[in-house]
Amino acid sequence: MEGGIPTADASAFRDCFSLAWKNPYVLRLAFTAGIGGLLFGYDTGVISGALLYIRDDFKEVDQKVFLQETIVSTALAGAIVGAAIGGWLNDRFGRKLALLIADFLFFVGAVIMASANGPPLLIVGRVFVGFGVGMASMTAPLYISEASPAKIRGALVSTNAFLITGGQFLSYLINLAFTRAPGTWRWMLGVAGLPALLQFALMLFLPESPRWLYRKGKVEEAKAILKKIYPAHQLEEEMQALHESVEAEIKETGSAGNISCSELWKTKTVRRGLIAGVGLQIFQQFVGINTVMYYSPTIIQLAGIASNQTALLLSLVTSGLNAAGSIASIYFIDRTGRRKLAAISLSGVVIALALLCGIFYQTTTHSPKVTTSITSHLKNYTCPAYSSAANANGWDCMKCLKASSPECGFCASATNKLFPGECVISNDTVKDVCHGENRLWYTRGCPSKGGWFALVGLALYIIFFSPGMGTVPWIVNSEIYPLRYRGICGGIAATVNWTSNLIVAQSFLSLTKAIGTPWTFLMFGVIAVFGVCFVLICVPETKGLPIEEIENMLENRAIHLKFWEKRSDNLEKNIQIH
């Protein structure tokens, strides 16, 4: 295999940026493909803000938590299908065509959403967007990985993660920009089509992945592209490595043709790669990251911030930290290593989730009481469940908001929002009366003196998650599989990621209603503890290894619990011999 193990240290970060001067072609490939990450991020972020205004326009959405979850989650269901088909498309027709199809589907979905006249058409548009996001999410890092020199591969694939988080931050800015525009949420969702159009136009002028071309027998085309990526003295080594990789495949399987599921599992290197890659994708989602991104304005309102605009503005903080974290990942990923970074990231997430659990427990158990004296303006709107309750004197804001048939809201005291307020029917008329008396109106969370600490908890969560688990699963999945299986295995991992995302997003609001917000965050924290154990036991370190040599590392790798220690000299020598 090519040239042993290159050293991946702090110089990888410097090399990534010096490349902009020495060889801008590689960065152009990486950033153009990375717009697929921007699509992913924009959709994740934009729906969190748009949902607040969709609820205002369509009363059935406001009244049904399941419908809110469905509007968010149908894009994820579409992404599951898109990722699954994307794996096959990548292997059959190449990475470039898969990205072009993803852009087209995303643009169609954005147009449908912007013109929707009700929840059904809005959901159809979300499905189309999901198809596009699912394909792009697994194709973009794969394309970047296959067009990157080994030493800076992690940093360049991290640009895809940066564009994901950059897309989320951009979506919050656009959400804020359109809060006072007519058709608020239509603009928010419709603008999503512009990045798809941009990438479609740019991809028309970029080449196919050189590694995919080589495997399909288009050796001269692959070599012509690799000449633009590698210096002359490394080109022949890279071509030889590709040749040996394809020859080894054919020797092992008898052909370079179709792949069966049994073949994936029976091949040791693929099986070990899938366990690590798929496991990372599962834990990335089940520690709750996309509940924070899809529902961050709602979470902030659950903590006692009443205003839609304030909730959106505060969500910019978490989104901005997420983008900053992905920039930090570009520095740390080839310096610290994938495995260690993931373990540190998940350990910090455990601490942040424990803090959020405590904050929301305090918020829900110390909410303001319901006053028995009703103002004249609201006396005809008293909540029926409160009026008929035998223990009405024991009611507080949280008890009021859980009332149903009809649903009720809490009009806070004009003197101090933490003083006893009134439990009244939740509708626009009552909301206007409450606001007319210069009082705050609550339907999704209760006033709390500690509510602002929820923002601190969310910020801490993002600070730990983004540089590590935000990027490591995608990077590992883009480099850990042998060339023959890379498209199909990447598709499997992305499909699992989106399926996990769907399960968490579809159940989050229901869980907060069923078991409470604090216990929902506690559950995510317990899962994160298991995630740390999984990373230490099952995930190998791929830092600095040329893609073709990772296969040898998986073949010889044993469980290595002391993740802070380097691989043994024997293993390193064994890989170099190959």
UniProtKB/TrEMBL annotation:
Q: Which UniProt keywords apply?
A: Membrane, Symport, Transmembrane, Transmembrane helix, Transport
Q: Which residues form the Major facilitator superfamily (MFS) profile domain?
A: 29-543
Q: Where is the signal peptide?
A: none
Membrane topology type: Multi-pass membrane protein
What is the recorded name of this protein? Major facilitator superfamily (MFS) profile domain-containing protein
What are the transmembrane regions?
A: 29-54, 66-85, 97-116, 122-144, 156-178, 184-206, 274-296, 311-334, 341-361, 452-476, 488-509, 521-539
Supply the InterPro entries for this chain: MFS_dom (IPR020846), MFS_sugar_transport-like (IPR005828), MFS_trans_sf (IPR036259), Myo-inositol_Transporter (IPR050814), Sugar/inositol_transpt (IPR003663), Sugar_transporter_CS (IPR005829)
Select a single GO molecular function from the record's annotations and give it.
myo-inositol:proton symporter activity
Q: Which family does it belong to?
A: Belongs to the major facilitator superfamily. Sugar transporter (TC 2.A.1.1) family.
Listed under GO cellular component are:
plasma membrane
Q: What Pfam family is a match, any one? A: Sugar_tr
Localization: Membrane
